[in-house]
Design a protein that fits this description.
Strand order of the largest sheet: 1-2-8-5-3
Bound molecules: protoporphyrin IX containing FE
Helix content: 40-55%
Number of strands: 12
Pfam family, one: p450
InterPro entries: Cyt_P450 (IPR001128), Cyt_P450_CS (IPR017972), Cyt_P450_E_grp-I (IPR002401), Cyt_P450_sf (IPR036396), Cytochrome_P450_Monoox (IPR050196)
Family: Belongs to the cytochrome P450 family.
Protein name: Cytochrome P450
CATH superfamily: Cytochrome P450
Order of helices and strands: HHEEHEHHHHEHHHHHHHHHEEEEHHEEEE
CATH architecture: Orthogonal Bundle
Number of helices: 18
Largest sheet: 5 strands, mixed
Shape: globular
GO molecular function: heme binding; iron ion binding; monooxygenase activity; oxidoreductase activity, acting on paired donors, with incorporation or reduction of molecular oxygen
């Protein structure tokens, strides 16, 4: 394999000037796969910027956790996300981030999250009431509806069921930016494309939802301890600006529902493709729940259900890559990585690496039953280190409860032949088409 002066393998061949921009834009997942075949730290060029694909769990652990001070989220990511999210928890850095995380962390304490169990099962049951035997449903939309409702009722203490369609449409408008043709990546930033304009429409719609949320809870925040009240009180006491309040709420509204709804969509799809696993899941749920609705106490006995969700997030990680910028020169696997370089750490590749997973393309929840000796960061659907997902406990609890509640009454079947899903690479990996399935009453 060819070595560069900086040490380590050369990247994939690209074109003059545009580098790997077109290969990347055509199919980022396939592009990552090609890069990963070349080594564990592989350079590539997109849109005039230098990236490295980092695929060894030990390096990922250094970047996200043990040596996190040498890396930051960086301008690249801020530019990608801040048009929508502003400077909320996901996009801010340094002291501003630390202060926000400290303020919000208590609303994500284990006891607080566990107190949302009933809201979670209630919203799942509500969806079940809209399903009947043989009625085809778009599972991604159904899951999104449930997770938006749960988020609003738990963290925002209000029901925004009437906004679900607005949020879904806005997410589509914002997400479409990721599908803009590769050539737009080469345009100067100040040239607005039709995709930018569509995204702006989405942002405006989300802002409308947030304004309504704040309005509904005005004057009713004292004495409550959910996320919205915590932020409203901080705003009223002059600790955070109106802009920060807005940015935080948009961040939680978007980061807090889309990811979990994708995890569940992929779970249902993989279960339908693997009927043996599905049967084993139903058997566990019948055994533990009988005719009941899952409670906190049941979760400890639903270990196969937990393994199913864990394995689905390995197979189709909703966040398919985490990105950092080197804030100083560093060495990774003997290669010099210069300050300012952008490091892409793809769960998509690491979770399917045969060094850590036997038969990685098989959906096999049982692999999580035995303690296999694999590096910690061979599995990192929620990222890691100080910037690890604040909603991890919330998301895991929610996914298991929704799955158990609905699988108690329904078996979901595929429409069509199954096979690998076509995914779009934005901030999340989302299906290019609605995921149509048919519920059968059990
Ligand atoms: C299956 C569901 C979820 C997945 C796969 C997921 C994934 C992630 C990942 C990978 C990160 C780290 C990003 C980075 O380091 O650059 C992250 C951060 C974050 N997530 Fe999640 N997430 C999920 C659910 C949630 C939920 C339910 C919430 C809120 C209720 C949430 C809110 C956030 C926030 C605010 C951050 C930024 C944290 C910080 O930087 O301090 N996520 N998430």
């Amino acid at each position: 394999m060819a070595e560069t002066d900086a040490g380590g393998p050369e990247g994939p061949d690209g074109w003059p000037v545009v580098g790997n921009t077109f290969q990347f834009a055509r199919d980022p997942f396939a592009f990552y796969e090609r890069c990963a075949e070349l080594g564990d730290v592989v350079p590539y060029e997109v849109g005039g910027m230098t990236f490295y694909l980092v695929t060894h769990p030990d390096d990922i652990e250094r970047i996200l956790s043990t040596e996190h001070r040498k890396f930051e989220k960086g301008a690249f990511q801020r530019e990608q996300l801040s048009g929508v999210l502003g400077e909320g928890l996901l996009t801010s850095e340094g002291e501003r981030w630390r202060e926000q995380r400290q303020r919000i962390q208590p609303t994500f304490g284990p006891e607080k999250i566990d107190s949302y169990v009933e809201i979670m099962t209630d919203c799942a049951q509500g969806a079940g009431r809209r399903w009947w035997d043989g009625r085809q449903v778009a599972v991604d939309e159904e899951m999104r509806r449930i997770t938006v409702q749960i988020l609003a009722r738990s963290l925002f203490g209000t029901d925004i069921g009437d906004h679900v369609e607005t949020i879904a449409d806005a997410m589509g408008d914002i997400g479409a930016q990721a599908e803009a043709p590769a050539a737009t990546a080469l345009l100067p930033e100040w040239v607005p494309t039709p995709w930018d304009r569509r995204a702006q429409r989405g942002v405006d719609a989300i802002d409308g939802v947030i304004a309504d949320l704040i309005e509904r809870r005005r004057g009713d925040a004292e004495g409550r301890d959910d996320l919205l009240s915590t932020l409203l009180v901080a705003h009223d006491e002059g600790e955070i600006s109106r802009g920060t309040l807005r940015d935080q709420l948009v961040t939680f509204l978007l980061a807090g529902h889309e990811t979990t709804s994708l995890a569940l969509t992929y779970t249902w799809y993989l279960l339908a493709e693997n009927p043996d696993v599905r049967e084993r899941l139903h058997a566990e749920i019948d055994d533990v729940l009988g005719d009941g609705v899952p409670t906190m106490a049941d979760l400890g006995n639903l270990s196969y259900t937990e393994q199913v969700v864990t394995e689905a997030m390995r197979y189709y990680p909703p966040v398919h890559r985490v990105v950092r910028e080197a804030s100083e020169d560093v060495q990774l696997r003997g290669r010099n990585v210069e300050q300012g370089a952008i490091l892409t750490m793809p769960q998509w590749i690491v979770h399917r690496d045969a060094r850590w997973y036997d038969d990685p393309l098989e959906f096999r929840p049982e692999r999580w039953a035995a303690d296999r000796d694999r590096p910690d960061y061979a599995y990192f659907p929620f990222g890691g280190g100080p910037r690890r997902c604040i909603g991890m406990r919330f998301a895991k609890l929610e996914a298991q409860l929704i799955l158990a509640t609905l699988a108690r009454n329904f078996r979901l079947e595929l429409v069509g032949d199954g096979g690998p899903l076509d995914l779009t690479s934005g901030v999340t990996a989302s299906p290019t088409e609605p995921v149509e399935m048919v519920p059968r009453v059990r």
